Each structure stands twice: as C-alpha cells, then as structure tokens.
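[09:14] KT: can someone run the structure on this one? pasting the chain below
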Amino acid sequence: MSKMSIGKLLALDVGLARIGVAVCDPLRLAARPLTVIQRRSRRDDFAELAKLAQQQEVVAVICGLPLNMDGSEGPQAQSVRKWAERCAYALRVLLGNPLSVIFWDERLSTFAAQELLAGNKDKTAEDAAAAAVILQNYLDAQRLGETLDFGRIELSK
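[09:31] RB: done, structure tokens below
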C-alpha cells in the first residue's frame, strides 16, 4: 500500500448555510458522517475544519464538487473550487502543514443521502450523510483503480 492510500480522509459537502463533514477509517474502507458545521464566517469555518482535521488525524480532504448533470462545471462548482483553495491555505497556516484537497464529483450525493436516511427530515443529518456518500464514492473508485480526476490542490510546506 502506498503512503497516499492509508490514513483518514475528511470529506466536505460545502453548502451556503452548512458544511457536511464525514470521515473514513485509516484503511479507507468505510466512510461515516461526522458532523455539520453551521457556516458563520470563513475564519470560523476554517478554524472548525482545522480542529476536526487535527482531532481526526486526517491526511487529506475530499471536497465535493457540484458538477452539472452533464458533467460540466457551472458557477457553483467554480465557487466551491475558490472556497476550497482558500480553505487549503487556511488549513496550512492553522495546522502548520498542508493537507491535499482532492475534488470529487458530488452529483446525486444529496439524493443518495436522502435515500439512506429514509424519512428523516433533518437537513443537518442529510448534509453529513451527503459528505459520507461523497467520501464512500471516492473510496470505492480508488479501490477499483478508477482514474477519474476532478482536480486537487497541493500546497508546499
């Protein structure tokens, strides 16, 4: 196993009001919902993410990319990319070392999360479950050796 294929990952489902957060085990077998961050300010949001990254001892972040149904990138995807870049820089400062931010297609993750939660109308639970769906999809694709690439942010120390 390569160094990049072990260690916990933190997944984010970035929304305007909330950020759903999920994490996987160090062997990257299964994702689980972790929490939801109620968005306040970039500074507060990034500080909360840094705290979670530290507590969970993650080695990288998977950021859901809201692509259009035809796979193209619209304004929402561009907005998430810009936010993720700011987040990567903030995490490098707050944690003292950079974390890779890997983008992953989040199409239909909310629908899948709703299916998983079957009838639970809690939007907060839905956001964390959507992040877990994004992360599980990423883990499954990696295990199958799929080479899909939606981009990544790699900062130097």
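[09:33] KT: thanks! The CA atoms of residues 50 and 133 lie 21 Å apart.
[09:34] RB: yep, looked fine to me
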